[in-house]
Amino acid sequence: MSKKVIVIEDERNIIEAISFILSRDGWDVVTHSNGHDAIDAVRLRKPDIVILDVMLPGKSGFDILQEIRGDGELGQIPVLMLTARGQEKDREMAQRAGASAYMTKPFSNAEVLDAVRHLATV
Amino acid sequence: MATLNVLVLVCLSYVALLFIVAFMADRAAKQGRARWLRSPVIYTLSLSIYCTAWTFYGAVGFAARSGLEFVTIYLGPSLVMIGWWWTLRKMVRVGRSQRITSIADLISSRFGKSNSLAVFVTVIAVIVLAPYIALQLQSVTLSFDTVASPDFIATKDASGQQATALWVAAGLAVFTILFGTRNVDANERHHGVVMAIAIEAVVKLIALLAVGVFVVWGLSGGVGATLDRIDASPIATWEVPGSRWVGLTLLSAAAFICLPRMFQVMVVESEHEDHLRMASWAFPAYLMAMSLFVVPIAVVGLDMLPADANPDLFVLTLPLMEGREGLAILSFLGGFSSATSMVIVAAIALSTMVSNHIVMPIWLRSTGGSAIISGDVRSVAMLARRLAIAVILFLGYLYLRLSGGGSALAAIGLISFVGAAQFLPALMGGLFWRGATRSGAMAGLGLGFVVWLYCLFLPSFGPSGILPQTVFENGLFGMSWLRPYALFGTEGMDPVMHAVLWSILLNAGSFILVSILSLPQPIERLQGAQFVNVFDHSSTPGGWSGGLAQSEDLMIMAQRIMGARDAQTLFAEEAQRQGLGGYLPEPSPDFLNRLERELSGSIGAAAAHAMISQIVGGATVSVQDLMAVADETAQIMEYSSRLEAKTDEQARTARQLREANEKLTQISVQKDAFLSQISHELRTPMTSIRSFSEILRDTDSLSGEERNKYASIIQEEATRLTRLLDDLLDLSVLENSQVVLNQQSGTLFDLLERAIAAADVTGKLRIHRKPEREKVMLNTDLDRLTQVFINLISNAGKYCESDTPELRIKAETRDGDLVVDFIDNGEGIPRNHQAVIFEKFARVGETKAGGAGLGLAICREVMGRLGGSISYVPGQAGAAFRVRVPMEAGQHVQAAQ
Questions:
Q1: In angstroms, rounded to a whole number, what is the distance separating the alpha carbons of residues B64 and B67?
Q2: What is the Cα–Cα distance from B293 to B273, expressed in whole angstroms?
Q3: Closest Cα to residue B377, out of B367, B387, B386?
Q4: Does B55 or B508 have the greater pLDDT score?
Q5: pLDDT tier at B852 (50, 70, 90 boundaries)?
Q6: Tell me, what's the pLDDT at B463?
Q7: Nearest residue on chain A to B682, judged by CA atoms?
Q8: Is it the case that residue B896 has pLDDT exceeding 50?
Q9: For B92-105, what is each residue's pLDDT tens digit?
């Protein structure tokens, strides 16, 4: 059974790109596009890996990450944060919030794939 | 008979003796070892300058002519000393506390330190005293001639007398100058002079008593025989009118207080006001002794001497008649003493007034005050006083010449008495009535003086002397109510009483009336309070009798100013130095000076002086002190207000800096946020572009449809990037005032047509318009305005969430502006977002419509450039934006299309 990845991202085109890459690599990809109920989607789908955008409508990626880390059942899920702001303090904030990996847009497809594969083995 | 030479020799010897006494007294005083100089006995004896040649010679003459009337001249001062000595005490206290130098100084000080008033008083005093000086000259001249002439009965050889009088005047002037102007300081007391006067007082008393004893026991044959003679003589039967009795008594009382020379010895030379206690009984006793033998001498003289003998000279002629040359010379010396002591003190008092109030102010003004630094002041003052003495004696001589010199001594003296009495209202009013004003004093003095001049002084030169005979008979300018001896028709009065009545009445009346009507100046109020309440203000002046009690007060004050420890150290040090146990030293002058220096370091010299004076007494706080304190306070206040201003300035600068800093921080935060936003907006499309281009490159197995789709995504995202960059540049240009507006004319209708077409919302949005309202000609940058319209229309297309999206465009002119509303039928913008929608990157809602959030920000900038505005109109059906364009260049087109 293939592993499941949830992509929480609001940009339609980026979702499509990531889904394409991971699907071809054999991942089960589900998507969600707003911050409000992102945590519910994670609980519902029970993914192996979460890919989380920082700037989401409704709720910031950092807040969602905190909710995940605060949840007893979901607490240990590897989370890959994506940000478009590209500032150093964002990286620090992501680490402090408990991100497993961090990636600045624009990224290469290989990077995303490597990161997801790596997180899956930890 | 004694020759003139012998007499002159006797005089010179006597004068030399007086000089020696004065010299030794001065030296003793300077060395501070002559306590007896400051005894009340000396003070009382010095008061005896009241008894001049008038008393010595004239009283007998007065008695021989008018009976017991002469007693009034002794009665007045005695009543003052016994019954009114507290008034004198007040005058002495004021004089000491205000450092008064003369009666002119006292009056001018009381009425606001007015120099014009001082000048006025001085001039009056000089004129008033001329007859009095003349009296002394006349008596000395007569006594000279009488004693030196072979025929001892006084003749009335006028020309010979005048020559003698001139010599006497010159001699007295020299004598007075030598005696009275050795030191210049008016504040310093003339110990030597006072001592000499005291000696003269004794000499004249002994001389008169000796003559009296000789007359009663030597000539008349004992007390009983003398009393019989008196009963038999007409003197006993002469009735004195009651009004004249009262009048003369009051007059002599007033003169006793007001005469400048009396003021000099009583106030200026006073060592201690307690001396008045002894003087209050001892001086009347002295007067009684002086008057004891007046009546016997007069009666015996009238009995024994030829009828044409001058009664004023009985004191001399009775001994001479009996060949008692020694007694005659003693008597002569008594008269000489009386005359010289009066002339000396009067001349000193007057010359001080002349020099202080007339010469010095003029001289200082003419030299611009520069001389104060140099020693010139001293020599000028000295010269002024010497000249003044000479002039005063010359005036006396002149009066003697002009008035003929034949009058009875008492008559001459009374003229001066009435004149001096004019000072009384201003003096007493000043001391007891706070409401008295300078104007009142001026008016009273002026009127009283004029009346005195007119009714007594000028007539004293005799009928057709200065006033023509017609004035006496018909009045001034023929007005009968202005006759000098019958003012306002008061005929039949004694001339002296007449003058006293009218001058004092008018003087006091106008003084009171004008005082009530005029307002005192602030300094007059101050001085008035100081004078009237002098006993409330100061403790016993002079001695440091307060002793340790004062030290304690000083200590309390010093502690407050210097701090407790410093003050205690200072006091303890001083106490040790004085050899006292404990921590409180005696308030010695040295210590007070030192303390004042210490304090002035903290609170300024004037304030320190004022505070110490206040505690130690002696001087109350003078107006100058207060002014100086006020000056210092003003300086300190100015200084502190400068400091305050500086502090304010610094606070302001600090606030400005803080504000600038906050602004910079805010700008920095905004810049970070802006960069972060830009980064996000740029990276997002780039991510898609990169990702899909890699997919296209790396994936061979893509279908043609997929390949097409992904390429379209790349193209779409690239367009988005371009649009974003365009907007950013546009905004940057708009924000940096580099916009060049391209003014064109066109109708609103055309603009909207173009905008709708460009917004590309056909099929997505139904637009409602009223074209007839859009026929408005605009003259503005049409492209920019179109850009705003495009943004608003396309926003409606993107964000209106209605199922059947509609946009209504309404145009109207309002207040000279063209107002265009864009209202859609969506949900509108939430209230909490309405404030920020015109900010950069502000986006509402969660939908991604491809905008970067710069559209409305650009609209706002554009409208600002065009002189109009754009705003959100809340409370409409949906989102409602209002664009306002100024119409200045625009106009309604009637016939468009």
A1: 6
A2: 32
A3: B367
A4: B508
A5: low
A6: 67
A7: A84
A8: no
A9: 887 777 777 788 88
- Band the pLDDT of B696: cuts 50, 70, 90: very high
- Judge whether B153 and B304 are in contact, CB under 8 Å: no
Q: Which of B306, B328, B248, B271 is nearest to B66 (CA)?
A: B248
CA B679, distance to chain mean position in Å, is 78
Length of chain A: 122
Q: Which of A10, A17, A110 sits opposite B692 (nearest CB)?
A: A17
Rg (C-alpha) for chain B, rounded Å, is 54
Q: For residues B257 and B93, what is the distance between their CA atoms, to the nearest angstrom?
A: 14
pLDDT at position B538 over 60: no
- The mean per-residue pLDDT over the stretch B353-363 comes to 79
For the stretch B340-369, what's the b/e string if a residue is b when 16 or more beta carbons lie within 10 angstroms of its beta carbon? bbbbbbbbbbbbbbbbbbbbeeebeeeeee
Chain A's closest residue to B672, CA to CA, is A87
Q: What is the pLDDT of residue B713?
A: 92
Partners of A93 in the β-ladder? none
Interface test with B, best of A25, A109, A111 (most B CBs within 10 A): A109
Kindly report whether the peptide bond that precedes residue A106 is cis, defined as omega within 30 degrees of 0. Answer: yes
Q: Contacts of residue A15 in chain B, CB cutoff 8 Å? A: none
How large a percentage of chain A has pLDDT more than 90?
Answer: 42
Q: CATH second-level architecture of B657-732?
A: Orthogonal Bundle (1.10)
Q: How far is CA B184 from each of CA B101, B188, B384, B454, B849, rounded to the nearest angstrom?
A: 12, 8, 10, 36, 109
Distance from C-alpha of B332 to C-alpha of B147, rounded to nearest angstrom: 8
Q: What is the DSSP letter of B270?
A: -
Residue B315 and residue B211 in contact, taking contact as beta carbons nearer than 8 Å: yes
Selecting from A14, A85, A109 the residue whose C-beta is nearest the C-beta of B680 gives A85
Q: Is A11 on the interface with B (CB under 8 A)?
A: yes
pTM (global) more than 0.80: no
Q: How many residue pairs bridge chain A and chain B with CB atoms within 8 Å of each other?
A: 67
Angle at B668 between CA B666 and CA B669, to 5 degrees: 65
**CB atoms inside a 10 Å sphere around CB B179:** 23
User: For domain B739-892, is the CATH number 3.40.367.20?
Assistant: no
The full set of domain ranges for chain B reads 4-26+41-405, 422-537, 538-621, 657-732, 739-892
pLDDT tens sequence across B753-812: 888 888 888 888 889 998 888 888 888 888 889 989 998 998 888 888 888 888 999 998
Name the CATH superfamily for B4-26+41-405.
Sodium/glucose cotransporter (1.20.1730.10)
Query: Which of A32, A2, A36, A35 shows the shortest CA–CA distance to A18?
Result: A32
| Whether the Cβ atoms of residue B732 and residue B725 lie closer than 8 Å to each other | no
pLDDT band at B690 (very low <50, low <70, confident <90, very high): very high
Phi, psi of B686 (to 5 degrees): -60, -35
**Amino acid at position A23, single letter:** S
Task: Domains for chain A: give ranges and CATH numbers.
Answer: 4-108 (3.40.50.2300)
Each residue's pLDDT tens digit, B574-609:
888 887 777 778 777 778 877 877 776 666 666 666
Give which of B892, B830, B833, B838 is closest to B869, Cα–Cα. B838
In the predicted structure, residue B187 carries a pLDDT above the cut 80? no
Across the interface, of B683, B690, B695, the residue whose CB is closest to A20 is: B695
